[in-house]
Structures are given as structure tokens and as C-alpha cells.
Write a structure and sequence with these properties.
10 helices; about 45% helix; about 25% strand; two-stranded antiparallel sheet; 11 strands
């Protein structure tokens, strides 16, 4: 069973705040301090560093967080597996997906997998890359498909596929033929919300060209991919989306790809899970069956 002091430590790692950790765990702040102090004595190492009001993990704290996160996840999963075997119920599989990865890339292979494995019941959560990684760390997800950038050190990961980010406009909105990024700057750009993997990939691609979102005449932030598609198809501006997300609209003639000069913008969709889990082999088999 997971020690209460371990739960406290992991909650402080999640919130980076003793007060919020205490509220989440329904204990007092002094109790949080006592639990952290006990672990620091137990491991003979400082786990957190304070810089004014800002709390951060020391290298020792990061190592302990990574190990204990995996142990906490495995304990939860082990309880579920034992309960499923004892009761004859289906195995729970908790999967996280970023919006584009989930709706346009992984959904169909996952549906086929579940049809072939009726003993598995999947719960799917859609969120940003950072939110999904936090859920992995907290043990509330077993694995995740993410499109954003992330620190790979705490995780096991594989590249599920590599997707191309394309610029789209309304049909006939721009002449055919290659265009430079500079030719797009006078147009309104529709972008996803902050935290979106698609937006981060675009921002990094622009930075390599000494450009930024502010280089465009106007930008409009919209959380919904479907709304962005409608606005772009009506000629209100342009947007950058993964090719898989606009494949149908391009085929139907609702959107047109703007051919850009230079190397294509590409990014990996990653399959992520906690490092050194006892369920690594099981999750690797899942990845193999879902692989494109």
C-alpha cells in the first residue's frame, strides 16, 4: 500500500505548493511539511529548493518523483488487475490523447483494437500534452499519445507516427505554386489555444525563420479545430494544422493546402508511459497492435 507520505510528496510535486497540496489531500500544511521532512531524513537528501515563493525539485527530488510516480501507478493498476481477475470483469485501460492525435490519428486504430479485445474497457481523456503528462505522473493515466514537446527523461516513449503540419486556406484564396512565409504575414492567422501541441510546433517552426505569431497582421485564438476549419473555409484567413486533421476537407475541396518554400514542418506523435513500470511489456504490446 502506498504510504501517506509518498502521496503527500507526489502531490507537492504536482502542485509545487505546500498549501495547495494540503488542500488537495485534506490535511494541514504542517502535516505536509512533516511528511516532506520525514522523506528528506529517510533519503538523506534535500528534495525541494525554495527561491523566494517559488518551489522546485532538486535533482534528488526529481529522481525520487520519477521512481515513486511509477510505483504509485503500478500499485493502482495492479489493484485493478487483481480485482478484474477476482470478479471476472473487464480490464481497465486509461489512455490520454491530445486533440489532434486522438480524433484524427489514434481513434480508428484504438477502435479496432477494442473490437479485437472485448476483455479491455478503455477510458479516453483528451487534454493538452502537459495535462496528460501530469495525469501520467499522478497515476490516473496508463499511457498517452501526445503531439507536443516534452521532457523525455522521466518516461518511456516511442514515435507512433510523424505528421506534417500544413498551411490551409479557402479554395482559390491563394494562387497555386510555392509561397514564402513572408507572403502569408498580411493574412489573419487562426491559432489554437496556449498549451496546444499544434501551436507549439508552429511557434518553433516560425522561430527558425526569425518569425513569431506577432509577425502576422492579425491572429485569432480558437480552441476548436472544427470552428477553425469553418472560418478558414469561408475565406476569413489561414491556419496551420496537421495534415491528418484536414485530409477529408482537402479531398472534398473545402480547404486548400498552401505550398510553402523550404523544408516541411513535421513533428512526431509520441506514445508515452512511465519509465520502469512492471506493466511495460503490456503497454508495449498495446503500442505494437495500434502501430500504423
Amino acid at each position: 500500500m502506498q504510504d501517506s507520505r509518498v502521496r503527500t510528496f507526489l502531490e507537492v510535486c504536482r502542485t509545487m505548493n505546500y498549501t495547495r497540496a494540503a488542500e488537495a489531500l485534506h490535511i494541514t500544511q504542517p502535516a505536509v511539511s512533516q511528511h516532506i521532512a520525514f522523506l528528506e531524513r529517510e533519503y538523506d537528501a534535500q528534495l525541494f529548493r525554495r527561491d523566494g515563493k517559488r518551489l522546485s525539485l532538486t535533482p534528488a527530488g526529481m529522481m525520487l518523483r520519477n521512481a515513486l510516480s511509477t510505483m504509485a501507478h503500478d500499485e493502482t493498476l495492479l489493484r485493478e488487475r487483481v480485482s478484474a481477475l477476482a470478479s471476472g470483469t473487464r480490464i481497465e485501460l486509461r489512455i490520454g490523447m491530445t486533440l489532434t492525435a486522438g480524433e484524427y490519428i489514434v481513434a480508428a486504430p484504438l477502435a479496432a483494437y477494442l473490437a479485437e479485445h472485448p476483455e479491455v474497457r478503455a477510458t479516453v481523456r483528451s487534454a493538452s500534452t502537459q495535462e496528460l503528462l501530469e495525469a501520467l505522473d499522478a497515476g490516473t493515466l496508463d499511457c498517452a499519445f501526445v503531439e507536443g514537446y516534452f521532457d523525455k527523461e522521466p518516461y518511456e516513449w516511442d514515435t507512433y507516427c510523424t505528421e506534417r503540419l500544413v498551411c490551409v486556406c479557402a479554395p482559390g484564396r491563394m494562387p497555386r505554386g510555392q509561397r514564402s512565409f513572408e507572403e502569408l504575414l498580411g493574412m489573419q492567422l487562426f491559432i489554437r489555444e496556449k498549451g496546444s501541441g499544434t501551436r507549439e510546433v508552429l511557434e518553433r517552426a516560425l522561430a527558425t525563420r526569425n518569425l513569431s505569431l506577432s509577425s502576422f497582421a492579425d491572429t485569432c485564438q480558437i480552441d476548436s479545430l472544427d470552428i477553425i476549419k469553418v472560418f478558414v473555409s469561408e475565406g476569413l484567413g489561414i491556419s496551420f494544422m496537421y495534415e491528418a486533421a484536414v485530409e477529408r476537407e482537402i479531398e472534398e475541396g473545402a480547404l486548400q493546402v498552401v505550398s510553402l518554400q523550404g523544408a516541411p514542418i513535421q513533428h512526431d506523435i509520441s506514445f508515452v508511459r512511465l519509465r520502469n513500470s512492471v506493466f511495460t511489456s503490456e503497454l508495449s504490446r498495446l503500442f505494437a497492435e495500434l502501430a500504423l
